[in-house]
Amino acid sequence: MSAPRPHPALPARTREALDFLALYHHETGLPGLRERQAEVYRTGGVTLSPAELTHGAQVAWRNSTRCVGRLPWMTLDVRDLRHVTNPEEVFTHLLAHLREGFNGGRILPTMSVFGPGVRVHNDQLIRYAGYRQPDGSVIGDPQNVALTDHLRRLGWAGGPGTPFDVLPLAIEGEGRVALFGLPADAVQEVMITHPTCPEVGALGLRWHALPVISNMTLEVAGQSFPCAPFNGWYLQTEIAARNLADRDRYDALPAVAAALCLDTTSRRSLWQDRALLELNVAVLNSFDRAGVRIADHHGVTAQFVHFEEQERRAGRKVRGRWSWLIPPMSPATTPVWHRAYDDTEERPNFTVQAPAWREARPGVCPFHS
């Protein structure tokens, strides 16, 4: 006898639970679908097993339309921490995530899923402060001015005021928000040097090695997990063509051009393009010399094509947001440039959270560790 089919009149949460269980059992080949779906009909929802949660998180990565690096989706290691809600315990587990995910530079895709009521206010576990100056300029990362101001309102005294001060974490749980400074051994950074131009290294540019995204809610089987930080590894263009190069970020291209002795008096010298290229060379060179895993835009887009072929063989359609899949540097040289994608979102998936400082948060009081 076949398992009961979801009925359109059922609540969305119930339908999503039934759909996910059908997907899980179909893709794993495990028995017991009828029993699990009967539980959903009886209770309206489902308590996910650790194996189900892991598969749901992996499929959420597989479904992420904005991610070009989805080929290794099945390798995601999911740490089931749904029993953890205390901010101090959350911080301890996040430190373990940072250290284990970094893995001595051989970065491992990792996710930590915490219990109800837990949230990290930072959009990534490692971020650099942005200090707004009286004249309107910013020391540090301009993208993080609002986050920096939020953390200072919560009680952070501020750092030494360098362009690369690592921000503390604001962790919400059990009705309070606690601040935690990250120890140096949990924040691996790479100094940016150039293979043939030492003047680029003299600029003092750097970037942290592990991008752990912490402002996205994991949506699986009709359930939402607001604290599910996860990481892969960096694509060099994220650092060199956006974080360090964008005018509203570190705006490093003029300084890089000066280090390279480029003619910046005319746009037609293409000094911005040449500086951008050499900054990308520098980032790849620096991560390679440091022994830290990093992807390049040619390799990762070729892998995405392989991912598409893999999914096609499995009978699944790959969805994607083209403007996110193409790299911000030399996109026409990559194999995804001439392809088109349906960007319809499917679940399991991730949804972006509004910043904590823009939300009304009744009943949450600050507590400083």
Q: What sort of overall outline do the alpha carbons produce when their principal axes are compared?
A: globular
Number of helical segments with 4 or more residues: 11
Our Rg estimate from Cα atoms comes to: 22 Å
Give a count of the beta strands, DSSP E runs of length 2 or more: 15
Largest beta-sheet details: 4 strands, mixed
Sheet with most strands: strand arrangement? 1-2-13-10
Mean pLDDT metric: 96
How would you spell out the order of helices and strands? HHHEHEEEEHEEEHEEEEEHHHHHEE
- Give the low-confidence spans: none
Summary, kept brief:
The chain is α+β, with helices and mostly antiparallel strands and 369 residues long. The chain has helices at residues 12-28, 33-43, 50-62, 87-102, 145-153, 198-201, 236-243, 253-259, 271-290, 297-313, 322-325, and strands at residues 77-81, 110-114, 119-120, 130-132, 138-140, 169-173, 176-180, 189-191, 206-208, 212-213, 216-220, 223-225, 230-231, 349-352, 365-368. The mean pLDDT is 96.
Could you characterize what this model shows?
With 369 residues, this protein is an alpha+beta fold. It is 34% helix and 15% strand. The chain is built from eleven helices and 15 strands. The protein has helices at 12-28, 33-43, 50-62, 87-102, 145-153, 198-201, 236-243, 253-259, 271-290, 297-313, 322-325, and strands at 77-81, 110-114, 119-120, 130-132, 138-140, 169-173, 176-180, 189-191, 206-208, 212-213, 216-220, 223-225, 230-231, 349-352, 365-368. The chain has a four-stranded mixed β-sheet, sandwiched between helices. Strands 3-6-7-15 form a four-stranded mixed β-sheet, with helices on one face. A three-stranded antiparallel β-sheet has the order 12-11-14. Helix 1 (12-28) runs antiparallel to helix 2 and helix 7 (236-243) crosses helix 9 (271-290). The longest helix is centred in the last third of the chain and has 20 residues, at 271-290. The model has no long low-confidence stretch (mean pLDDT 96).
